Amino acid sequence: PASICPVQENALQRVLQLPVVSSTCETLQRKYSSTKESHPLMASVCEVYERGVQGAGALAMWGMEPVVRRLEPQSVAVANNLACRGLDHLEEKIPALQYPVDK
């Protein structure tokens, strides 16, 4: 792994691309979808929850926008590079991060 993230890549993207993370997310999504399909009452509860999460996410983004605009691009880049270096270290020390959950 590179010690500095390329411009188009960021630390969050790298974390989401780790096989252990992506396979966990896929497994959770499948379980969530199958639970919603097989339990109608649970599906309605989940839909209410999903709408609440979307609303909260939109509100959080609206609230953070002024802060993000004030941050200098350099500060964001420095934080991203530090996070990428931390990921490099974790990937080196914990090889299991490169394998799907089932392995």
TrEMBL record:
The keyword Nucleotidyltransferase does not apply. It comes from the Eukaryota. GO terms for cellular component: lipid droplet. Pfam families: Perilipin. It is found in: Lipid droplet. InterPro entries: Perilipin, PLIN1. Keywords: Lipid droplet. GO terms for biological process: lipid metabolic process. Its main location: other. PANTHER family: PERILIPIN-1. Belongs to the perilipin family. This is PLIN1 protein. The gene is Plin1.
